[in-house]
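Thread title: Can someone regenerate the structure for this chain?

I was given the following input by a collaborator and told the matching structure tokens would be attached. They weren't. Posting the sequence so someone can regenerate them.
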Amino acid sequence: MKTKIIIFDFDGTLADTHELIIRTNQEAMKAMNYPVRDEEAISKTIGLPLEKCIQTLFPELPEEALPEWCATYRRIFDVLKTQIVPGLFPEVKETLDTLHERGYVMTVASSRHSSSLNDFLRNMGIAPLFQYVLGADNVKKAKPDPEPVLQTLRATGYRADEALMVGDMPVDILMGARAGARTVGFTYGNSSPEDLKAAGADYVFDRFSQLLSVLD
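Best answer:
Regenerated them for you:
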């Protein structure tokens, strides 16, 4: 079936937010008086909603402490994002422009809060390329549940066999596959080729422009 809609993850797929996320997490841990986790441990949680990231890193954290922790994270994030300004990965803008010119419908399904997500898309100059944008606060069940992909398909009127899910983490691949879409994993983000393949990615690439090779 011809691909008609491409659903992109954001962090680690379109934009290099790695340093910003690591630093924000570590500063939040200090502020909350919890042990500071290393880059490797934090990297494994990227792609999950913020609450799930915190619970994964600190399973012992009381549920009632989550709102304060999330508020602390977002306060620190708002400061650091002006100091550690994320940019698009190489070849992203050019490839997105090509896809847009060829008539593909493009959307974003991210575990980032929608306000932050839309701010980044606007500031990076790519917001007009996407017809539909979903953040973590726009769904009841986040990655790796298929709901973000299924909701996107319902909103845009396409079928799963017409969709391609593109991400950098196993949760992206699992979300797409569980919805019935084909999947592409990129190795330059926050995961490894082995983990992407283990999650069942149909294609694993090192460069963003390689996405063009699997489209009709």
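The chain has nine helices and eight strands.
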